[in-house]
Amino acid sequence: MSTIYDEKQGALNVTLVECGPNIITQIRNIEKDKYEAVQIGIESEKQKGKSEKSKKKFLKIKEFKAETKDLKAGDAIDINQFEIGDKVKVSGITKAKGFQGVVKRHGFKGSMKTHGHKHDLRAPGSIGATYPEHVIKGKRMAGRMGGVRASVTNLKIVEIDKENNILFLKGAVPGVKGRLVEITA
């Protein structure tokens, strides 16, 4: 993330997203595959010290439902389809935080520090019920936090750097630095 200055809006917090070369690897059609979709591959960067056999041509291949009338395999999808002011949806895997307690994971208040509560300040409290006599499914408890797919909608494109293939999106996107995200209009 970074901050840029706009004369009308002032300081804007933006996320810089590099949109690498995306190539259409395959077209799915109704006649052959019983559905319409486009398979897109992200070209991998040159891998140093690897033999030609072990180098991967595509870093990741993903399929999207789309109309395939005027698309063909080998076409490149680049940053030119976006314009400043467009609103986009960004999806990705969130930052994984490991095993967390109820205070951090669900925002529980915790108990008071005095009146006999010496060691259970961040404990969840009572979790059982009188009648079913077991913990009900879906109870908010401690556990693994993050590392799930999330989407952020209506992120505005503030600036486009066509030379370096970088989009400037107003706001934060899910995930950590270097992780792949999907940007859809």
Short description:
The protein has 185 residues and is mostly beta strands. It has a domain at 97-145: Ribosomal protein L3, domain 3 (Irregular).
Key traits:
185 residues, Ribosomal protein L3, domain 3, four-stranded antiparallel β-sheet, 2 helices, 12 strands, 38% strand, mainly beta
Spell the H/E element sequence: EEEHEEEEEHEEEE
CATH superfamily of the domain at 97-145: Ribosomal protein L3, domain 3
The residue ranges in which pLDDT falls below 50 over 5 or more consecutive positions are none
Biggest sheet strand line-up: 1-2-11-10-7-12
Cα distance spanning the termini:
21 Å
Number of helical segments with 4 or more residues: 2
What share of residues is helical? under 10%
Radius of gyration: 23 Å
| Overall pLDDT confidence | 89
Largest sheet: 6 strands, antiparallel
CATH topology of the domain at 97-145: Ribosomal protein L3, domain 3
Classification by helices and strands: mainly beta
Layout of strands and helices, then pairs:
Blueprint: E1 2-6, E2 10-18, E3 22-28, H1 30-33, E4 37-43, E5 58-64, E6 76-77, E7 87-93, E8 98-100, H2 102-106, E9 143-145, E10 149-161, E11 166-170, E12 182-184
Antiparallel strand pairs: 1-2, 2-11, 3-4, 3-6, 4-5, 7-10, 7-12, 8-9, 10-11
Describe this structure in words.
The two termini are 21 Å apart. The chain has helices at residues 30-33, 102-106, and strands at 2-6, 10-18, 22-28, 37-43, 58-64, 76-77, 87-93, 98-100, 143-145, 149-161, 166-170, 182-184. The chain is built from 2 helices and 12 strands; from the N terminus they run E-E-E-H-E-E-E-E-E-H-E-E-E-E. The protein is mainly beta and 185 residues long. The strands form 3 sheets. It has a 6-stranded antiparallel β-sheet, with no helix packed on it. A 4-stranded antiparallel β-sheet has the order 5-4-3-6. It has a two-stranded antiparallel sheet with strand order 8-9.
